[in-house]
Amino acid sequence: xxxxxxxxxxxxxxxxxxxxxxxxxxxxxxxxxxxxxxxxxxxxxxxxxxxxxxxxxxxxxxxxxxxxxxxxxxxxxxxxxxxxxxxxxxxxxxxxxxxxxxxxxxxxxxxxxxxxxxxxxxxxxxxxxxxxxxxxxxxxxxxxxxxxxxxxxxxxxxxxxxxxxxxxxxxxxxxxxxxxxxxxxxxxxxxxxxxxxxxxxxxxxxxxxxxxxxxxxxxxxxxxxxxxxxxxxxxxxxxxxxxxxxxxxxxxxxxxxxxxxx
Length: 262
Fold this sequence. Notes:
Elements: H1 15-27, H2 37-57, E1 64-67, H3 70-84, E2 91-95, H4 100-103, H5 106-111, E3 115-119, H6 132-135, E4 140-146, H7 158-167, E5 171-175, H8 190-193, E6 197-201, E7 212-216, H9 231-234, H10 242-257
Parallel strand pairs: 2-3, 2-4, 4-5, 5-6
Antiparallel strand pairs: 1-7, 6-7
Helix pairs in contact: 1-10, 2-10
């Protein structure tokens, strides 16, 4: 018998998530932007999936955006903020040991006129808090740091990093793909984290590949990086995949209900 032991890379699709997706695909096909019956049913189902994430995060329905992946969610958080930033602050801090979906935005940020500073890490991949006072200064608009390292498993001192960012009036995004929901459990909210944006990916907790989500605190400056439609409250153009959204929502419910999820 062969055992799979790399759930840090991806997880098998939960049977209940598969069931929900299959049932939807067998009976429905509507475009959630359409006004007739098929579209209205698709919209209602998509809204239900949004609400599931919002209830878990303890946030407003409209603060949850579905994306095509955790990578896209992180890109939207960083580049979308950079495009929308209304201030004259033109420095963004990225974690030196973060996933490429964060670190590879540096080149684009440079083209947009931003300076990128790197928050250094120690040998264990943990952010060096002693260095942050010189890194996170009053010219910083956004700080982005992962919650847990995807290669080392290191858990970042997020609360301390958030405090440093808040002290200078910077916004903060955390890539929680590797941490959500296992490390956080079922009793936290986005207010507990104190961040402005959180990116996650469904396939890390028994959901389907091809869908992620981004929490965006109300009032956070953000512009779309994928344009051409009004979907996801004008923040992510493209016809929504309702089946994937339902599968993600069901996988989250199952992950939180499983007493052995840790």
